[in-house]
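Good day; I would like, with your permission, to put a structural problem before you. The record follows directly beneath this note:
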Amino acid sequence: MDTITIVILIAVTALFLSIAIFLRTRRNRPEDVDLMEGHEFEYYCAELLKKCGFQGVEVTKGSGDYGVDILAEKEGVTYAIQCKCYTAPVGVKAVQEAYAGRDYYDRMVGAVLTNQYFTRPAVDAAKKLKILLWDRGYLEDMQEL
């Protein structure tokens, strides 16, 4: 191969790598998550949980799920997770749903996972009921793994 051919191959390879990196970072932008519908967000969260080492990840059926959207396990700890894709802070109702669902599904830990943040009453209720609150920052950290 001559020098021009090698330079062209290197340039084309660099271009494809740049496009791949751009598409990968674009896919994980939090703004894209904000546009998801509820059920789409649940499946997206399930995939993120798998990527973060959770096992037995299962999205529950839409209606009659007793306040839980995802069941999962990690390192021997079982989780009942309520997902909320909102445009405003998440309130107490989501915490109550995770609490009820945790007990219904006989799970060790209840959590609420959202693309937003939580209201002060939700944070207070979660502390009292021992429910984990995974907010936008937590979701973004999961996306980066």
Summary: The chain is about 50% helix and 20% strand. The first helix runs from residue 3 to 27. The longest strand covers residues 77-84. Residues 24 and 88 are 27 Å apart (CA to CA).
